[in-house]
Amino acid sequence: RCGAPAVPQVTVRDALNQALDEELERDERVFLLGEEVAQYDGAYKISRGLWKKYGDKRVIDTPISEMGFTGIAVGAAMAGLRPVCEFMTFNFSMQAIDQVVNSAAKTCYMSAGSIAVPIVFRGPNGASAGVAAQHSQCFAAWYGHCPGLKVVSPWSSEDAKGLLKASIRDDNP
């Protein structure tokens, strides 16, 4: 038969993993931190294999302290690194709201553009089966209304990969 060649299907999980792997490989300033992202390969296996490949300095398991590890990530971004700060679910970002909205989002503006904050906040957002009420809210619209933050919501695995790579390369949160 004649027809278009088969295009391999890539899951969103694998697309995000590929994007992280490619960006960690491309730029030594990029690192990933969050709960269970290293030894456990991520709660949803987004970081599968990255800890084994890049080690403890580039893929960092954190304590269950969103405010703490988000603050560390924001400070690292201000110092010239490019952290990907992963929340197990975006509901937990509320524990770090001051770091996200006041420190990361507003620093470039408040420094008259002299301090960039090249950070990515990543994680699942919105309703999902079996994650209970406190894990099922969607904060995309709320964060989208915060000056200084860019919010992306991919539709496909191709979108997820491209948008994550573009976000990591962006000098703003």
UniProtKB/TrEMBL annotation:
- The EC number(s) attached to this protein equal 1.2.4.1
Pfam families tied to this protein: Transket_pyr (PF02779)
Question: One of this protein's GO BP terms?
Answer: glucose metabolic process
Instruction: Please list the residue ranges annotated as the Transketolase-like pyrimidine-binding domain.
Output: 10-173
Q: What class of enzyme is it?
A: oxidoreductase
Cofactors required: thiamine diphosphate
The superkingdom of the source organism is Eukaryota
InterPro entries found in the cross-reference section = PDHB_mito-type, THDP-binding, Transketolase-like_Pyr-bd
Per the UniProt record, which residue ranges are transmembrane? none
Keyword Transmembrane on entry:
no
Instruction: Quote the catalytic activity from the record.
Output: N(6)-[(R)-lipoyl]-L-lysyl-[protein] + pyruvate + H(+) = N(6)-[(R)-S(8)-acetyldihydrolipoyl]-L-lysyl-[protein] + CO2
Gene Ontology molecular function: any one? pyruvate dehydrogenase (acetyl-transferring) activity
Q: How does it assemble?
A: Heterotetramer of two PDHA1 and two PDHB subunits. The heterotetramer interacts with DLAT, and is part of the multimeric pyruvate dehydrogenase complex that contains multiple copies of pyruvate dehydrogenase (E1), dihydrolipoamide acetyltransferase (DLAT, E2) and lipoamide dehydrogenase (DLD, E3). These subunits are bound to an inner core composed of about 48 DLAT and 12 PDHX molecules. Interacts with DLAT.
Known role: The pyruvate dehydrogenase complex catalyzes the overall conversion of pyruvate to acetyl-CoA and CO2. The pyruvate dehydrogenase complex catalyzes the overall conversion of pyruvate to acetyl-CoA and CO(2), and thereby links the glycolytic pathway to the tricarboxylic cycle.
Q: What is this protein called?
A: Pyruvate dehydrogenase E1 component subunit beta
Q: Which organism is it from?
A: Todus mexicanus (Puerto Rican tody)
